[in-house]
Design goal:
388 residues; alpha/beta; Rossmann fold; Alpha-Beta Plaits; 3 domains; seven-stranded parallel β-sheet; 13 helices
């Protein structure tokens, strides 16, 4: 029985993914894998038997991924599984940013109890909540991954002009993007020309904290609407508050409330509802469970945030999975150790990303424990697994 520990409430859809060889629970001991959503793992004591962690969601700020990479623990996430849910919230935010809907609803609450006068008060008071239409307006989408591309395509359908920016645009993402979306190479074009700007990039504390700040806000059109359903830290809160108070930014809609933002002029705080739909939770849970199973049973890695993607079909009954540092000559040493035992390697895959690499070997028969020990002791080797 393979134990899977859940550190948060996970959609019951996983019961249809894990078979009877798995025991999935919030109180199992010695788990081979862990599933979670928002549980903060910094300082969490990881069991020595744990080989993989799957986050049912895209963000992994709550997981010490680098620390776990050093321990040979593969961390997975589920990019794109919640894309539709977030896209829909962004589209709603476009309308909230243009039509003063939130202010209007709050005002209606103040005329409760006026009886037959309500309709007259509504006609008299509605003019203060006049807003514009998004039809024909220009939307800038920063980041064209699964969510950004969905937002861009949907906005086109609403009659907006859409330009996007993504220096790391993948082939798969580009294929999903409408040809009517104009992709630009210079962020300034978005800052200087767009009526609405929406952010869809990952937050990396060392490089893009305060990505939106006073410097680039000055470049923007007066009355711009900024939408942030990516991560709160991507926008400098002090700078955005000054911009909304002055009217430079007409509205800031953010899915990550902070104390200083709540109640600030022209700021709408949404309580992190981006992926909070049953459908998104099901999609994320199912994807995370399948990633765990494929790694546990086959050593295949898909959508890891701390190790490279590496997978291949099984061609033999014995598979060797080696996590190691991305250093020269290590692959030759690994295959050499297998060759010394006169064991044929039927298939091989080796992939690297940054400081880490993965090597998968399908071999014709079992490798003696002494040879496995020799491989484990090679400089740079972090973890060796045999899957039969």
């Amino acid at each position: 029985m393979k134990n899977i520990l859940t550190l948060n409430s996970i959609s019951k859809v996983i019961n249809n993914v894990f078979d009877s060889s798995y025991n999935v629970s919030s109180d199992v001991e010695n788990p081979i894998g862990i599933m979670l959503r928002s549980f903060k793992m910094q300082g969490y004591e990881l069991n020595k038997n744990t080989i993989a962690i799957a986050r049912a969601g895209a963000g992994v700020n709550n997981i010490p991924c680098d620390e776990y990479a050093k321990q040979g623990v593969v961390v997975f996430n589920t990019p794109g599984a919640n894309a539709n849910a977030v896209k829909e919230l962004v589209i709603a935010s476009l309308l909230l940013g243009s039509r003063k809907i939130v202010d209007a609803i709050k005002w209606v609450d103040t005329i409760k109890g006026q009886g037959e006068e309500v309709s007259k008060l509504v006609e008299k008071g509605k003019s203060q909540f006049v807003g514009g239409e998004i039809l024909g307006k220009k939307l800038g989408v920063i980041g064209l991954g699964a969510i950004g591309a969905n937002v861009a395509n949907c906005a086109l359908g609403l009659g907006m002009e859409v330009i996007g920016y993504d220096p790391f645009l993948s082939v798969n993402a580009a294929l999903k993007l409408s040809r009517h979306v104009t992709v630009v190479k210079d962020l300034d074009e978005i800052f200087k020309t767009c009526d609405y700007i929406t952010i869809h990039i990952p937050y990396i504390a060392s490089s893009n904290k305060g990505f939106i700040n006073a410097g680039n806000i000055r470049q923007m059109k007066d009355g711009v609407v900024i939408i942030n359903c990516a991560r709160g830290e991507l926008v400098d809160n002090a700078d955005i508050i000054k911009a909304t108070e002055s009217g430079k930014v007409a509205r800031y809609i953010v899915d990550f409330p902070a104390d200083e933002l709540i109640g600030a002029k022209n700021v709408i705080c949404i309580p992190h509802l981006g992926a909070s739909t049953p459908e998104a939770e099901d999609n994320c849970a199912e994807m995370a469970a399948k990633e765990l199973i494929d790694y546990i049973e086959n050593g295949n890695i898909t959508n890891s945030v701390n190790y490279p993607s590496c997978s291949m079909p099984r061609t033999t009954d014995v598979r060797l999975v080696i996590l190691h540092k991305n250093i020269s000559n290590i692959l030759a040493q690994i295959t050499g150790a297998v060759g010394k035992e006169r064991i044929n390697i039927e298939n091989l895959s080796n992939q690297s990303k940054g400081d880490y690499a993965v090597t998968i070997l399908d071999v014709e028969k079992e490798i003696p424990s002494s040879s496995l020990a020799n491989i484990s002791e090679l400089e740079g080797v972090i973890k060796v697994r045999v899957i039969k």
